């Protein structure tokens, strides 16, 4: 079966930056699972996976526009320390999670004070051209429930 809208895809990946430095990999854990065609994956990766099948291995280079977006230099905000999740003590360069009206968001600490923290709200990978080395582990038709919920269920996907 080929990857198309309303299929659940499981894949492993290794992510590298423009210098070839490995940023992350799923190879030592469960594969990533997502519902194809429902905006659950960055655009460049979803486009690269479209039409592929179980066993396919390939590399996809993703521009910032189809990845995590361009960096916006004005995307700096001051927030109360109590809104940051992920550590007890914050230092510049650390990545935190903040709950927003649009859901959870990763931010990077620029300057930390006792009560307020200056954060960069750009995604940590914004503005970067990224290469994903991908191996497709499985492709299956999505269940009616997965399509209704808008995401994959099970290992690597959403757990209800």
From TrEMBL:
Coiled coil: none annotated. Keywords: Chaperone, Cytoplasm, Isomerase, Rotamase. SUPFAM superfamilies: FKBP-like. It is found in: Cytoplasm. Its EC number is 5.2.1.8. Belongs to the FKBP-type PPIase family. Also involved in hydrogenase metallocenter assembly, probably by participating in the nickel insertion step. This function in hydrogenase biosynthesis requires chaperone activity and the presence of the metal-binding domain, but not PPIase activity. It catalyses: [protein]-peptidylproline (omega=180) = [protein]-peptidylproline (omega=0). PROSITE patterns: FKBP_PPIASE (PS50059). Residues 6-80 form the PPIase FKBP-type domain. Pfam families: FKBP_C (PF00254). This is Peptidyl-prolyl cis-trans isomerase. Its main location: cytoplasm. GO terms for molecular function: isomerase activity.
């Amino acid at each position: 079966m080929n990857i198309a809208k309303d299929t659940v895809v499981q894949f492993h990946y290794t992510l590298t930056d423009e210098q070839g430095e490995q940023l992350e990999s799923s190879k030592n854990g469960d594969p990533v699972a997502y519902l194809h065609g429902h905006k659950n994956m960055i655009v460049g990766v979803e486009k690269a996976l479209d039409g592929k099948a179980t066993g396919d291995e390939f590399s996809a280079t993703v521009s910032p526009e189809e990845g995590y977006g361009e960096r916006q230099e004005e995307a700096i905000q001051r927030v109360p320390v109590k809104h940051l999740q992920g550590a007890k003590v914050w230092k510049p360069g650390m990545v935190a999670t903040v709950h927003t009206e649009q859901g959870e968001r990763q931010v990077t600490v620029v300057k930390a004070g006792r009560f307020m923290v200056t954060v960069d709200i750009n995604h940590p990978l914004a503005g970067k051209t990224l290469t994903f080395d991908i191996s497709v582990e499985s492709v299956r038709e999505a269940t009616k429930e997965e399509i209704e919920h808008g995401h994959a269920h099970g290992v690597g996907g959403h757990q209800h």
